[in-house]
Amino acid sequence: MGSLIILLFLSIRATAAPTDVAFLEDIAAGRFREVLEEMPLRGDRSLMVEAEKDHPQAWVLQDALTSVLLERGYTVLSGVEGGWDYRLSFRVVDIGLWYRTPGKFWRKGVLRRGRVSAFLRLSDPSGVVYWAGWLEGTGEDTVPEPEGNPSLPREVLTDRGRWLEGILVLGLLAGLVSLSL
After folding, report:
1. Contact 76, 85 (CB under 8 A)
2. Domain limits, the chain
3. Which of 70, 112, 113, 154 has the most C-beta neighbours closer than 10 Å?
4. For residues 96 and 116, what is the distance between their CA atoms, to the nearest angstrom?
5. 3-state SS, one letter per residue, for 98-133
6. What is the model's pTM?
7. Cβ of 94: how many Cβ atoms within 10 Å?
8. Which of 103, 109, 98 is nearest to 145 (CA)?
């Protein structure tokens, strides 16, 4: 019986929603995999990934870009090491989350939506630009409650104005009851 409880606990933990940071990184990485196909890169080249401008959440995007490049077999170097063939620079335009509390009669959990928008530029050490374009992605899932990570911008939309939902459900139920009589 004890092992059954442990297995149940582990299965629940395994299906838990990703953290806010992991959620945003997944959105950025998924979109970057598609964008990477458009870039004129050869697999035997090394890259440096860096933010063009300081942004409080640039590290989220840099982690996502670096992980995809490493997964595809590229060598990723830091700027101080030198010896890189390409520089992939990015400028974060928007990155953040918003949460919406569920209705009173259906949907358990809180709806979480993430958005990532950045401008990417691929250049060589002399500054010649080989490719430039946008990385934009959104995603949504349902979580038990807002995580509250203070390092990420987020909005929590409340139930204000949701009273209309209850009235609509009651009206529909009253109409169905009157039709069945």
Report:
1. no
2. 19-173
3. 112
4. 7
5. EEECCCCCCCCCEEEEEEEEEEEEEECCCCCEEEEE
6. 0.74
7. 12
8. 109
Find out whether 41 and 86 touch, Cβ atoms under 8 Å.
yes
Decide: residue 145, CB within 10 A, 0-12 exposed, 13-18 middle, 19+ buried.
Answer: exposed
The answer to whether 153 and 22 have CB atoms below 8 angstroms apart is no
User: Helices marked H in the chain — which ranges?
Assistant: 2-14, 20-36, 58-71, 163-180
Among residues 45, 48, 44, the alpha carbon closest in space to that of 78 is found at 48
Q: Which residues pair with 115 in a beta bridge?
A: 96, 138
Which amino acid, one-letter code, is at 91? R
Nearest-10 crossing angle of helices 58-71, 20-36: 50
DSSP 138: E
Characterize the bridge pairing of strands 86-100 and 46-51: parallel
Mean pLDDT per 10-residue section of the chain, whose length is 181 residues: 51 67 96 95 88 93 96 86 88 92 70 95 94 96 79 65 65 79 74
